[in-house]
Amino acid sequence: MDAATFSREAMACQRLLYHICWAMMHNEADCADAVQEALLRAWQRRESLRDPEAFRPWLCRITANVCKDMLRRQKRRQLSPLLDNLVAAPYDEEGLALRQAMEQLSPPQRAAVALHYFDGLSVEEISRALGIPMGTVKSRLLYARRNLGLLLSREMEVSI
Amino acid sequence: MTELRFARIMKNNAPEPTPAFQSAMEQALDRIAREPARAPRRLTRRQMVAVVLAALLMLSVAVAAALGRNVIDFFTMGTAPQSQGMIQKNLASASYDHCDITIREAAYDGMTLYILYAVQDRDAVESLGTLDPYTGERYMEASLTPGMEADNVSWWRDGLWIDGVDTDVPGMSRWEYRGTDTPGEMLCYQLWRLDQLEVYLSGSVEITLPLGERQPYESLTYDQQRRTLAPEEGVMTFTLDASARDSVTVEHPGYRREIGGVTAWVSEAVYTPVQTYLTVTYQVPQEVLDAYIAQRGGQPEEETMQYMPMDLMTGWLYDAALVDGAGTPLQNPTVFVYGCEGISNTQAWFTFPAMTEFPSELYLAPMDYATGGYNLAKSIRVR
To answer: What is the pLDDT of residues A25-35, one digit of tens each?
Structure first.
């Protein structure tokens, strides 16, 4: 794979990569660092990609692993203005409620939820992208969906 | 809140890559584009020999790895060093017009039954499944090969028979199907958590699998307890040495800890040569559950969304890992098969790698995402 093709394929995955980093890291600076390290690592390992059709899950897996490595290395967190990104301008009640609800999930739960609901990935695709068993994906989605739905309803004072 | 509305809210509020993130990607890709192209080198004769030897070594390692991955290795990601000695091989086989089926491996560790069967389509010219270049696995969408379909052969009912007794599929069991580099070959790896049915094997047992020509349900017969009897046709039977249970260690730690009003303890720890199995029992006082529900505005009307005792513990349970007295995790965090496997309103079940040496103190502790470490203040003692 040449650099031009790699660049084109990577940019096509930008939104997906952002959701992985956004879910697992805690601030914009870490997201930027994570994606840079992921791209460089993927480029170094490009020979291992035998089927170009599998570029997207391959790059997602590398990105998720980079995020996990960074989380393990870091000792302090600053909880973020990152999730402010969810709030559209001007003020949006739904976006604010979602921000507050998502903050109560753990990073792995946020990652599964983000990939499923923001990017439309199936359980199997999420399993390959994050490197976790399908049963774990299903459990995390079920738990997160249940709690997010209730939290959102409470935040927005919607009767069920 | 309906699923439809939930999905709409999520989709409408999905975050878009920020300018900083876009810029970070562009910088990385620009740096990649500016790398000098690797010029072809002329290798000396000595370098050529070294390259060939290295390639041969890598090939032999890969072949050894492929041959060496048994059914236990498959599920434990190679973290059970004693697995090879526990595998019983080539236990049964059957041939049909278009395919052959072999019970290639089986094992029992005192808690879990492992089975690997292989199907080989005789006329195949292509490998089955879709190759994932990152993992090297050939994932299969279906559990049948073309040859099996042509022969009307399959795993045709849930459950299996142990010494002739119909045994349901236990919770937390797993079946995985893989293609291989051999055209027309499918492997089915099975993990049966018999302990979840409180079924513990010993001595020599007869295992009968519903694997073969599909049998009409109306042809099946039943015993006096209305349990299905194994038919004469459409099954594969083999004898398994199930004496491993005799050599496992079972402990009942019982160190109670209060976590957010919930009392929890490790009620059983089973140490086998393949895995470590932990059962956590917990009690949620009614007043604690009531307060939890009240804080969330009461029980939702939709029954499936209502709060249950497990809601107070799910986060802790899914984030828990096995650590020593210093909070150092005992399992490799890149081996993602371990941790909490299942939860009920009173118990949760964990698996961890096999242990041959134990630290002086052993705990189940949840990850603290604020620090990146494990929180011993909220841990449950195992040993």
So the answer is: 867 888 999 99
DSSP SS3 for B255: coil
ipTM of the complex: 0.86
List the structure tokens of A61: 């897996």
How far is Cα B116 from Cα B243, in angstroms, rounded to an integer? 19
Cα A70 from Cα A36, distance rounded (Å): 12
Indicate yes or no: CB of B134 within 8 angstroms of CB of A39: no
Whole-number pLDDT of residue B304? 64
CB nearest to A160's CB, from B1, B20, B25: B1
Reported residue count of chain B is 383
Share of chain A above pLDDT 90, in %: 16
Q: What are phi and psi for residue B219, nearest 5 degrees?
A: -90, -10
CA atoms within 13 Å, Cβ hemisphere of B76: 27
Range of the domain at A36: 3-156
Q: Average pLDDT, whole number, for chain B? A: 85
CATH of the domain at A82: 1.10.10.10
What chain B holds in terms of domains, given with CATH numbers, is 72-246 (2.60.40), 249-381 (2.60.40)
DSSP symbols for A51-105 = -GGGHHHHHHHHHHHHHHHHHHH-------SGGGGGS-SS--HHHHHHHHHHTTS
Highest mean pLDDT among B108-112, B173-177, B313-317, B358-362: B108-112
Are B333 and A7 an interchain contact pair (Cβ–Cβ within 8 Å)?
Answer: no
Structure tokens at B333: 């965090």
Which residue of chain B is at minimal alpha-carbon distance from A74?
B372
Better pLDDT: B260 or B212: B212
**What residues form DSSP beta bridges with B351?**
B277, B339
Closest Cα in chain B to A92: B13
| Pair of tokens at residue B93 | 């086989």
Residue type at position B47:
Q
Residue A1: is its pLDDT beyond 50? yes
State how far residue A140 is from chain B, nearest Cα, in angstroms: 9
DSSP A116: I
**CA-based nearest distance A82→chain B, Å:** 10
How far does chain B reach from its first CA to its final CA, in angstroms? 44
pLDDT tens for residues B33-74?
A: 887 655 444 444 444 444 444 334 333 334 444 445 899 998
Comparing B307 with B186, the larger pLDDT belongs to B186
Q: How many domains does chain A have?
A: 1
Angstroms from A1 CA to nearest CA on chain B = 12
Most confident of A49-63, B106-120, B132-146: B106-120
Helix spans in B94-160 (H): 146-151
The pLDDT of residue A84 is above 70? no
Contact between residue A59 and residue A14 where contact means Cβ atoms under 8 Å apart = no
